[in-house]
Amino acid sequence: MLDGIRGLAVVAVMIVHMKIPYLQWGYLGVDVFFTLSGFLITTILVQEWVETGTINFRNFYARRALRLLPALSLLLIATLLPLNPVALPQRLKAAGIALFYSSNWVRALAPDFNLSALAHTWSLSVEEQFYFLWPIALALLLRRCSSAGKLVSILGLATLASIACRVVLWKAGAGAMRLYNGLDTRADSLLAGCLLSLLLSFGILKSGIRIRPVAIGALAVIAIPGLLMVFSSEWNDSYMFLAGYTLMALGSAALIFLAISPGSPALKAVLSFRPLVWIGSVSYGVYLWHYPIFAYFEGLGWPRLLKVAGMWSTVLAVAALSFYGLERPFLRMKRRFQKQP
């Protein structure tokens, strides 16, 4: 089911980068990725803590490097080829920024810098910065907190602090790029996933409960007006910074919870659709390669329909080659760094 969510999220991002009218909401796929990342990483870390009484940081960061760096390195090498019209020194700077996962802060603080085909790596930078900080913070909280309730409360306050930071900076006149790209102003999406994981891991919330259709309907009635505004807004609208991104974080967490809970047959049918699940399984490569490939095809003088067909088929083919030929062999190496009870 979670691969189905990944598939939906990355398809949404691809749609928005095709600049199709009335589908500007595709940027929200990134928020779904953020929440899902927070959920999965926290689940893995808490499970390791429960089984071994500690979190092995060396193993964690080694697994992250094996998952992320091979495909990213190949992309960075590809962007240095002469196919890219941007001057080589600029491309080298952009590749270095992406390699050290700082694209988000460059976009936030120096929005005029041209990251060219690597502009989309801002979201990878946000996630990687979070991956660096969160395991350490979680280990400290697990050691110091006397109860699961206290741990959840602290994390809830951290989530509210991120929301408050975004609102305060907006009120102070911060630019949209600063608010959209900063780790501090986007952490609530990641922390919402962390919160969901902790609630489930410590039994405060039960994934096995069956959610009645009446309850789902009532929640929909409450949430739909706000979510309609979210889906009709641009990424830089004031509504998104004041409320929209918070609602999206909550909505993404709710989607994950529904996906792993009994019931919701319609949702499960969508999320188990085989082509969507496959796209989700190769979503990292799809996300990495879609932006430069789309940019390349946009520069061709082809008819629009032919461009679109070329974009999607090329992205999926390259992502498949990346996953099966490069990523999967490195993923097998992650077993060397698995937790030992």
Structure write-up:
This protein is mostly helical. 76% of the residues lie in helices and 0% in strands. The protein is built from 15 helices and no strands. The protein is globular, with a radius of gyration of 20 Å. It starts with a helix and ends in an 8-residue tail after the last helix.
Topology:
Elements lengths: L1 H16 L10 H25 L4 H23 L8 H12 L3 H7 L12 H23 L3 H24 L4 H6 L1 H19 L11 H19 L6 H23 L4 H7 L2 H8 L1 H16 L5 H30 L8
Helix pairs in contact: 1-2, 1-13, 1-14, 2-6, 2-9, 2-11, 3-4, 3-6, 3-14, 3-15, 5-6, 6-9, 7-9, 7-11, 9-11, 10-11, 14-15
In short:
By secondary structure, this protein is mostly helical. Helices cover 76% and strands 0% of the residues. Helix 1 packs antiparallel against helix 2 (28-52), helix 2 (28-52) packs across helix 9 (183-201) and helix 7 (148-171) runs antiparallel to helix 9 (183-201).
Instruction: Measure the end-to-end span.
Output: 28 Å
Number of helices: 15
Taking all residues together, what is the mean pLDDT? 90
Principal-axis shape:
globular
Q: Kindly report the oligomeric state of this protein.
A: single chain
